[in-house]
UniProtKB/TrEMBL annotation:
Function: Involved in the maturation of [NiFe] hydrogenases. Required for nickel insertion into the metal center of the hydrogenase.
Organism whose genome encodes this protein: Caldanaerobius fijiensis DSM 17918
Residues the record lists as binding Ni(2+): H2
Pfam families registered for this protein in UniProt: HypA
Protein name: Hydrogenase maturation factor HypA
Entry binding sites for Zn(2+): C73, C76, C89, C92
GO annotation, biological process: protein maturation
GO molecular function, one term: zinc ion binding
Protein origin, superkingdom: Bacteria
Length: 124
């Protein structure tokens, strides 16, 4: 059920941005999702089709960019991504701590169309 409220928020944001820009439809929504959010793109896509019906976002394509979780080693200062199931620093073997990276969840930008305009424009 987590994805439902997340998707609702994403659609609201995209629609209000598109409306502000005077767009007549949204072609594409580029979304950044951190690994630690646990958000599954397929679920967002499923809810999106229900929620976006009848809005400017109806029929828009969703594109997800995944950001891997990042760890920081206190011992040697190295930042690294998880290596399989190992959370240890690849440089010195110290057990690293998780950083804020991987908690991202936001719309990077949307691509919209204007009336009588065949091409789509990027709106950030
Ligand atoms: Zn280290």
């Amino acid at each position: 059920m987590h994805e439902l409220s997340v998707t609702q928020a994403l659609v609201d944001m995209a629609v209000s941005e598109a409306a502000k820009a005077g767009a007549t439809s949204i072609d594409k929504i580029n979304i950044v999702v951190g690994e630690l959010t646990g958000i599954v793109g397929e679920s967002v896509q499923f809810y999106f089709e229900l929620i976006s019906a009848g809005t400017l976002a109806e029929g828009a394509q969703l594109s997800f960019r995944y950001v891997p979780a990042e760890f920081h080693c206190d011992k040697c200062g190295y930042n690294y991504n998880r290596n399989g199931f190992s959370f240890r620093c690849p440089k010195c073997g110290n057990a690293g701590v998780i950083t804020k990276r991987g908690n991202e969840l936001y719309i990077e930008n949307i691509e919209v169309s204007f009336d009588g305009d065949k091409g789509s424009k990027k709106h950030t």
